[in-house]
Amino acid sequence: MSQPSKPTTGGFDKTPGWLDWTASPSQPRFQLPAGSVDAHCHVFGPGDQFPYAAERKYTPCDASKAQLYALRDHLGFARNIVVQATCHGADNRAMVDALRSSGGRARGVATVKRSVSDAELQDLHAAGVRGVRFNFVRRLVDFTPKDELLEIASRIAPLGWHVVIYFEAVDLPELWDFFTALPTTVVVDHMGRPDVSLPVDGPQFALFERFMREYPNVWSKVTCPERLSVSGPKALPGEQAAGLAPYRDVIPFARRLVEQFPDRVLWGTDWPHPNLKDHMPDDGQLVDFIPHIAVTAEAQHQLLVSNPMRLYWPEAL
Ligand code: 0GY
User: Fold this and answer.
1) 293 is a domain residue
2) In the chain, count of helices (H) and strands (E)?
3) CA atoms of 107 and 122, how far apart (whole Å)
4) How far apart are the CA of 274 and the centre of ligand 1, in A?
């Protein structure tokens, strides 16, 4: 495989302290099931071709479609779901260009405004977009009013699209009524970002489990151990031999969701890993995390193949 080449910036100044994605990820030991989907990843620019949005809260290094697809092949994925990143605002051109260049092997999640026309929505659909993302993480976006989001949700519902929501666990109580009013399938990014230093049986994660239990239209990405972990990427001395994984503090949370909701979980790399402060993960090591959270071949197949195919390529089933 051709390794992804080194990141560029397209003439933009990166956010100070920005960590670039790993240019030479390891070969995972875990062999992905045939047809696996990386259901959460992004493209950034390149900035000289697809400039970053004026309203962005960070300026990344470039992460092109060619680099994303080289990573896909290196890790052994068959398909990608390219999620619009906030650094591109509601300008979906880089994401759409990636979909159109994928030979039908990528679908996408867009960011749109209330002003989007029906013709634009149809064009996005033709390119392979199957969802919109609503973001409630304050460091990433200025919030869009909820009435505007509900209007967007009602317009994309007839297309068979879903809504992806991104929020922090502490904000779930306040957002509950809005989320539970959404008329579509709802996909939560990164398990609703639990504080994994709290007990998995504690009230914070119990509320998230209740959200999924009571609302069968809610799915979750069991993604981003590298973002949620306090214990970090290294197994402590002696732990690796005992079979304990990097990011081990995230395992009980992700495994709990995979076991309780096996037909409503998705997995993705989150490449190119925006806004990480402490370390940049090795994407091969992230793939090796999967068997710690989906421990049977059946659970792995649901997580990596049948669930994402049902959501993004239903016509192929
Ligand atoms: C992620 C997480 C983050 C960023 C974005 O679109 C984005 O900018 O999603 C984050 O900083 O937590 O899913 O990539």
Assistant:
1) yes
2) 11, 8
3) 14
4) 6
Q: Residue 187 domain-assigned?
A: no
Q: What is the residue type of 23?
A: A
Nearest residue (CA) to ligand 1, atom 13:
270
Q: Is residue 283 part of a domain?
A: yes
Provide the residue range defining the domain that includes 262. 37-132+218-316
Model confidence over 110-146: pLDDT tens digits? Answer: 999 999 999 999 999 999 999 999 999 999 999 999 9
Query: Does residue 1 carry a pLDDT above 80?
Result: no
Of 116, 113, 121, 99, the residue nearest 41 (C-alpha): 99
What would you report as the CA-atom Rg of the chain, rounded to the nearest whole angstrom?
A: 18
CATH number of the CATH domain containing 126:
3.20.20.140
The answer to the question of residue 149 being in a domain is no
pLDDT score for 234: 81
Question: From the CB of residue 81, how many other CB atoms can be counted at a distance below 10 Å?
Answer: 25
**Structure pTM?**
0.96
Using one digit for the tens of pLDDT, what is the confidence trace for 259-308?
999 999 999 999 999 999 999 999 999 999 999 999 999 999 999 999 99
Q: What 3-state class would DSSP assign to 218? A: strand
Q: Each residue of 219-233: b (16+ CB within 10 Å) or e?
A: bbbbbbbbbbbebeb
Helix or strand holding residue 95 (H, E): helix 93-100
Atom of ligand 1 lying closest to residue 270 CA: 14
Count of the separate structural domains present in the chain = 1
CA distance 4 to 212: 37
CA of 144 to the centre of ligand 1 (A): 17
pLDDT in tens, 176-232: 999 999 999 999 999 999 999 999 999 999 999 999 999 999 999 999 999 999 988
